[in-house]
Design brief:
0% strand
């Protein structure tokens, strides 16, 4: 912290002060809000706040690594352009605050971090996933607001009343300029569509929790619905080109893979014992509306 104050902050000063970037700020707010909701839900199932906070740090950091790597690989030409010094390229790679994360890229690294954490702490992975998935969606919703402030993940031109124009210099203004060196033409605020989608899915996951009768059902629900909505949102977004010789973007292809995984997860969950409903009040290890599972159930 002292080093950041002595050397970091002065280095960030652009002559008019230290810039506070909307994208980076929203990432921090997203992490805080998602962790807060997960802590609240963890208390219900008997997982203490320290455990959720430790998990949140690991999943957040490894999720950032995966999301950034995915973005750098997908758009490697803008980071490692011919003639660009290697030092400058590496500096751009680690400059996450300026934007450039792919949500689906975070899934493998975040899932691996969560699996290792659960195994290390002796926790049930599916119970843990059901607990934290709504918080991750809240974080995603807030993070998409950061995308809007940054001007990335944009939609195509439209004439709807809520269309927005991004200022000159942004990627969308370069791609769809209203005039030379001017702002963009009105485009779909695809980032806000995605934010609303994630917020609604988070609310649905919370509402589904007391109705779920098996561990993993909340995770499976999200793993089913989010790829479907992403497939549809990608039809509005125009920032990703078709991939692997198909007419689909890389995010749409990953969505199809996730739907297959979701089908397999639903099948596996259907083979697990059903938790009894009703009965005595829920205790540790159960969500509201569930009775504690009987031994051997």
């Amino acid at each position: 912290a002292g080093g950041c104050i002595l050397w970091g902050l002065p280095a960030l000063d652009d002559g008019t002060g230290v810039p506070i970037r909307g994208y980076g700020l929203m990432l921090l707010v997203a992490a805080g809000a998602g962790t807060w909701l997960s802590v609240r839900r963890g208390r219900v199932v008997g997982i203490d706040a320290d455990t959720i906070l430790s998990l949140g740090v690991e999943v957040f950091l490894w999720g950032l690594v995966g999301a950034r790597l995915f973005y750098v690989i997908e758009y490697h030409e803008q980071f490692f352009a011919p003639g660009k010094p290697l030092g400058e390229s590496l500096r751009d790679v680690v400059n996450i605050a300026s934007g450039g994360l792919v949500v689906f890229g975070s899934l493998p690294t975040a899932a691996l971090a969560a699996w290792r954490f659960a195994r290390r702490r002796g926790l049930d992975l599916l119970e843990l996933a059901d607990c934290v998935v709504p918080g991750m969606l809240v974080g995603l919703a807030i993070g998409r607001v950061g995308c809007f402030l940054n001007g990335c993940c944009y939609g195509g031109p439209c004439e709807l009343p809520w269309a927005v124009s991004f200022p000159a210099g942004t990627e969308v203004a370069v791609k769809y300029p209203a005039s030379a060196a001017g702002p963009s033409v009105p485009v779909h605020p695809a980032q806000l569509y995605a934010a609303v989608d994630a917020a609604l899915l988070a609310a649905l996951a919370v509402a589904w929790t007391p109705l779920a009768r098996r561990r993993g059902e909340v995770l499976a629900l999200v793993l089913t619905l989010h790829p479907i909505s992403r497939l549809l949102l990608e039809e509005i977004r125009v920032d990703e080109p078709p991939a692997l010789g198909t007419s689909l973007s890389i995010s749409q292809l990953v969505s199809l893979v996730l739907l297959v995984l979701a089908a397999g997860l639903w099948w596996w969950i259907s083979l697990q014992p059903v938790r009894p409903q009703g009965g005595p009040a829920a205790g540790p290890g159960t969500f509201p509306g569930r009775a504690a599972a009987q031994p051997g159930a």
